[in-house]
Amino acid sequence: MDRAGRARLQWQAERPDIDSDSMKLFGRIAQLNQLTFQHVLTPFFSEHGLQSGEFDVLATLRRSGAPYSLTPTEMYEDALISSGSMTNRINRLTNAGLVKRSENPQDKRGVFVTLTNKGFNLIDGLMVQHVENLKKVLSPLDEQEKEQLGNILLSLIKGFD
Fold this sequence. Notes:
The protein is mostly helical. Helix content is 66%, strand content 11%. The protein has seven helices and three strands, in the order H-H-H-E-H-H-E-E-H-H.
């Protein structure tokens, strides 16, 4: 039995008046996230000198299309990361020569962050390996189950809109 299942049984024994099914589901989502980062994503990013947030910045710039340039606000809105440490991420990526900052000609106070050739080549090469890693995580599911899971997760996300 997994941790979430054990926790549910413990709550049923201690507080049978509480419906613990939702805790079990969210526990499993949290555990999957933790295991994926611990065993798959963090080692992969570290192997290439990146942290997950930095990878997300590079991936966001790459998928934005030529000229692979966005404002920090646009990156925050499109990336799967919080805005809290965006400046630190951009600084580290700039220092590594993977992105560069340039003045926004339409807003002299603003900047654009753009992939350098080095950054483009790195993220472009890593994406194939990254997708393969994610496929391995999802390999216990067949195509129909993946589609169902995607739809279920989207429904939950839409619940926040």
